[in-house]
Each structure stands twice: as C-alpha cells, then as structure tokens.
C-alpha cells in the first residue's frame, strides 16, 4: 500500500499548491455530477475532495442483488442516530443505523438503485411554499432529462412501449424502465394494486402523473450492472482526458476558510482546509481558491451542515459551546432534517422469493453472460405511490409509497436494518430456515417530524450528533398516515390476488413476548387467523407496532435548505449559502422539503443544476 499512500500524499499536496476555480467537497451522487460537468470546460481548474477512496472494480458494488452487503463495509460512513424517544423501539439501543457512501460515487454506490424524480407538486411547493424561486417542476425538468438515458429491456411489454417526451434518452445514467423478470409475488402485487381503487396502475411514475403502481425504475444498465455516479460521470477515461480536473480521495474536509471582503467586510471563501489520510490530522492542508472561485459543498445531508458549522456558519449557541468562532449565525444550518421511514409487514409464501442461496454458479453464469437473472434484480422489484387523503396540504402529491420486496428476511437483512436479536429471531426465524416470503413496506413520504444534524465538537473527525426525531410531530399525523398505509397493505395481502400464494403472516404475530403483552395480542404464534390481522381496528396496537419497527429508508434531506431570498433559510434560490460569498450547497441538504420517493434522482438533478449555476457565475467574474 506504500506507493498508493505516497501517490495520495502527492495528490493532496498538489491540491494545496494550485489555485482552483472550483473546489467540490464530496464526490457522491451530486458532487460527482458537479465536478464532471464543470471540468468539461478546459479553462476551469476543478478540484474534487472525497473523504472515501476510489471506487475499486469490485463485484459487490456492481451486482444489484447484493446491495445490503455493502452496509458496514469500509465504503460506509455507518452513522448512528442518537437513541430515539418516539420510535425505533425494536432496534438495537433504540438507534437508527444510517449507512452513507464513503467512496467516490457516494451513496449511489450503496443504495438500492431506485430512480424516482418525485411529484410535480413537490417542486411547485418548493417554489410557492418555501420561496425557492426558479425551482418549480418546469424549471427542474431539463436537469432530470439531462441525467437520464432511459431504456426498455427485453420484457414482454417493451415492444410497444414509447418513452414519454418528459424523459431523457441520451443522458449520463442508464435508467432501466422495467425489471427483466418479476418474482411471482411481484406480479401479484401489481395486479392487486391495479384492482384497488385507492392505488391503480401507472405506466411511468416519473412521467405525467406519479400516482399508481408499476415496475421500479432503476440505475441498472443493459448488462445488469449498477450505475453509480463514479462509473458514469467520473469514469476513468473521462478523467484521464481532463488534466484540469484533479481528484483527491481519502481527503476529509475540515472547514471552509473565510477572509473578509475589503470594502464590505462580508465573509468570502478563500479555500478549503482538509485532512489527507496520507499525511494525517496533524498536517492539515488548504486548497486555495482563485479570485472569484467557488466552493461547492456536496457532502450530503449529514456532511454538508457539519462542514458549514465547523467553518463558523450555523447556530451561534452551538458554535460557541463547541469553541468554534461564529462567522455567520444561522439557526437553520443543520435543522429541518427530514427522512423517509417505512414499516415492514411480511408474509410467508409458497412462491419463490429472492434469497442469498440464489448466488450460485448457474445464476452467476446467467448474470455474466446475459446481465439477467436474480442477481440483476433491483430487490425492490415493484412499487406504488398513493395519496391516503391524510395530507391535503400536499396538493395531490402521494403521501405513501409502497416498497415491495419479494425476498426472505435473513441475517444480512436484519443486520442492515439494525433490529435487536430477539426481534430478528421473532420476525424472520422461519425465513432464515428457508421459508419463502415477501415484504410490503408502506413508506411515509412527507413527515411532519423534523430533526437536526449537529457537530459534537470542533474536531473535524468527531462523529456527528444526528437526531431525526422520528414520529415526534405534535398531532400524531405521521403515525396516522403510516397506519393508513398499513391498512391498505393488509387489504392487499388479504386480497384474492395473494390468497393462493400466502402461507401465513409472519409479522406482526411472532413478535417478542414483551411486545405481545404490551399491546395485548391475545393469540399465541400459530393461532392467528391467516388472512385477517387480529385487532385490525385496534389503533393502540398499530401505533405501538409502528413505534417499534418503523425505520429509515436512507433518505435524509433538507439540513441546509434553499429558501426565499428575503428569509432565513440556510441557502438562497441560487444555492449559495446565506451571508457568505463563494459557497454553494448541491446535495440532498439543499432540498427545501423532502420529495415523494427515493431521493437519489433529485440529488443528481441538484448536481446538474448547481453545475450550470456555478458555470454562469464563473463566466461572469
């Protein structure tokens, strides 16, 4: 490893010895896009700092089915939240595990690859409710299209399918519009949803309308390989052809260094201080900005507010208590944290489901030769978006997403979700013993509960304090909305479409004894009526259930949100940080509010948009 280390030390020193037009901090879903687009102009010197390593050519990061194995690996920040007061009671230490990508490509390397833009209404709300002028649906549409290269596979319906003009056909990222093969349970899910008047079917949830059920569109190419931003926007041949783009990996950003504008005294970014692992924390380096240059923070909903706070931009009391000099006081830096949570409900089935045993010589051969078979499965094969009516303020955007996973629970799954031993044993014992199953996971798309991400000390390597404050909203709307989602799911499971493949409901019957007593479940495991949940109308039971098992879908957002120019948000509509010059945010932290669905596509759109805004500002210098 010595030459690698000396090469990295050399790369880090080079970053500190030149002046840069742009320093992008974080090479993840959005940051890789920003660096790629800006470095296309050979006159701009672009530096990308990434805390993780290069994305090594590793089958685990390519093969869609094994995504869960990447959690707790060396490319995962593996954050934990603080113990939760209102939720996560079935999780170890009441803590929610937050995997985040610590590698070039960021969380696009670890995620489950679902491509969901969000609802038209989400972006209209960004503009009209949050004052994010220029962020309506028509404004963001070209940036989604620029990223997409949508294709239909070899599925039966592909021949007559046409791509909506709202979609992109020649962008950087392959988007597989439908799964090549569906498990039997996934087919039943689509039939049950189509027949349910509250859900229905939709051809393309990223097209004209979002509501309905359909195949999960995902970042998987024609060869069945994951499409992350490192292997697309920052592929090696592109980097080799751009001497003006310098990428330094294993470089942990400590803070943005500010000077003062001579006339006005306004803080202006002078560069980024970073710690190179090859040189150690005792020898931090500074990557300097050229006059009028820009820092783009793309370190995610956790990393970006931490860097701002360490730079002196954040809540004054917090900064003072941790010994950080205040440059600009703003209570919104690190606040407004939102995240999607879902509540699993599982049924045992006689239909074949995905499981670890499917990784065998025959399926590996199919995968390598055709890019098909179970290894190319997205895991979340099908999905649905619906409005329960609980949130009229969303103007028709969905408030529940159903993730459908035709897979057995196993130790990997349990570990990835962070359930305690007795819960793992209770929920998935039969499946671990080889019983097939499927999971329906109603997901809360627009939580009213918000939390925060804050520094725990001035040390740039200290772990953050993350408190999503799940299910804490004052009127209990979040729990009620999830309860409505569970009601719909139990209806689907009990419908004629699943009846002949259902063997029994695993959850919530087999739950640990203490929980059964707490909620008064009268039945012993095995005595339950097969198709109807006991106490189906018992709200206390369902609330306890939700507060036990609801957990993150890995979509934190809005900790440095864009808002009205005349307000107090962390960032302005042009993505620049309020109160300082030369710093922008371009990642999930910038979202004024969380979107309706998986957040990777909006992050990439934000990266595309940021690149255009920064390029225009640099041209105008």
UniProtKB/TrEMBL annotation:
Molecular-function annotations in GO: flavin adenine dinucleotide binding; oxidoreductase activity, acting on CH-OH group of donors
Entry-linked InterPro entries: FAD/NAD-bd_sf (IPR036188), GMC_OxRdtase (IPR012132), GMC_OxRdtase_N (IPR000172), GMC_OxRtase_C (IPR007867)
Domain Glucose-methanol-choline oxidoreductase N-terminal intervals: 101-124, 300-314
Cofactor(s) the record lists: FAD
Keyword tRNA processing: no
Annotated residues for binding of FAD: 103
SUPFAM superfamilies assigned: FAD-linked reductases, C-terminal domain, FAD/NAD(P)-binding domain
Any Pfam family hit: GMC_oxred_C
UniProt entry tagged with the keyword Flavoprotein: yes
The entry's keywords: FAD, Flavoprotein
Family to which the UniProt record says this protein belongs: Belongs to the GMC oxidoreductase family.
Name of this chain's protein: Glucose-methanol-choline oxidoreductase N-terminal domain-containing protein
């Amino acid at each position: 490893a010595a030459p690698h280390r000396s090469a990295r030390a050399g790369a880090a020193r080079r970053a500190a010895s030149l002046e840069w037009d742009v320093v992008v901090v974080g090479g993840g879903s959005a940051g890789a896009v920003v660096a790629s687009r800006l470095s296309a102009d050979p006159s701009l010197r672009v530096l990308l700092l990434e805390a993780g390593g290069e994305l090594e050519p590793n089958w685990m990061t390519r093969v869609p089915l094994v995504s869960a194995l990447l959690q707790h690996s060396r490319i995962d920040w593996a954050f934990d939240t603080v113990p939760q007061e209102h939720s996560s009671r079935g999780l170890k230490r009441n803590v929610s595990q937050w995997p985040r990508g610590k590698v070039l490509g960021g969380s696009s390397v670890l995620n489950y690859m679902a491509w969901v833009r969000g609802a038209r209404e989400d972006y209209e709300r960004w503009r009209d409710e949050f004052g994010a002028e220029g962020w309506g649906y028509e404004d963001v549409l070209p940036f989604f299209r620029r990223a997409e290269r949508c294709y239909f596979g070899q599925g039966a319906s592909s021949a007559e399918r046409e791509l909506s003009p709202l979609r992109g056909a020649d962008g950087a990222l392959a988007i597989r519009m439908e799964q090549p093969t569906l498990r039997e349970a996934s087919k039943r899910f689509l039939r049950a949803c189509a027949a349910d008047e509250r859900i229905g079917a939709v051809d393309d949830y990223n097209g004209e309308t979002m509501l309905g059920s359909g195949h999960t569109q995902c970042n998987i190419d024609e060869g069945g390989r994951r499409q992350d931003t490192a292997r697309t926007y920052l592929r090696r041949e592109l980097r080799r052809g751009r001497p003006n783009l310098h990428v330094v990996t294993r470089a942990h950003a400590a803070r943005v260094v500010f000077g003062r504008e001579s006339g006005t005294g306004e803080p202006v970014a002078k560069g980024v201080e970073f710690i190179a692992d090859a040189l150690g924390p005792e020898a931090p380096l500074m990557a300097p900005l050229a006059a009028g240059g820009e820092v783009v923070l793309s370190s995610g909903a956790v990393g970006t507010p931490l860097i701002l706070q360490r730079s002196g931009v954040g809540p004054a009391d917090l900064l003072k208590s941790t010994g950080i000099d205040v440059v600009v006081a703003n209570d919104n830096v690190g606040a407004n944290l939102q995240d999607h949570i879902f509540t699993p409900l599982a049924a045992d089935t006689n239909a074949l489901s995905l499981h670890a045993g499917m990784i065998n010589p025959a399926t590996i051969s199919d995968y390598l030769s055709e890019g098909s078979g179970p290894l190319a499965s997205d895991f979340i094969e099908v999905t649905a978006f619906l409005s329960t009516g609980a949130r009229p303020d969303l103007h028709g955007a969905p408030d529940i997403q159903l993730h459908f996973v035709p897979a057995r629970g196993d130790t990997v799954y349990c570990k990835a979700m962070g359930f305690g031993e007795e819960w793992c044993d209770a929920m998935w014992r039969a499946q671990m013993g080889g019983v097939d199953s499927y999971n329906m996971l109603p997901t809360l798309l627009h939580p009213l509960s918000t939390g925060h991400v804050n520094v725990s000390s001035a040390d740039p390597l200290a772990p953050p304090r993350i408190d999503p404050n799940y299910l804490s909203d004052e009127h209990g709307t979040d729990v009620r909305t999830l309860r409505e989602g569970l009601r719909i799911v139990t209806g689907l499971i009990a419908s004629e479409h699943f009846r002949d493949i259902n063997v029994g409901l695993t959850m919530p019957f087999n739950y640990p004894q203490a929980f059964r007593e707490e909620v008064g479940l009268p039945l012993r495991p095995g005595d339950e009526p097969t198709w109807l949940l006991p106490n189906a109308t018992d709200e206390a039971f369902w609330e306890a259930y939700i507060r036990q098992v609801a957990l993150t879908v890995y979509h934190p957002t809005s900790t440095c949100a864009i808002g009205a120019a005349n307000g107090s948000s962390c960032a302005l509509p042009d993505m620049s940080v309020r109160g300082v010059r030369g710093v922008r945010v371009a990642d999930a932290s910038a979202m004024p509010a969380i979107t309706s669905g998986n957040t990777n596509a909006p992050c990439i759109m934000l990266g595309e948009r940021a690149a255009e805004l920064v390029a225009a500002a640099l041209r105008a210098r």
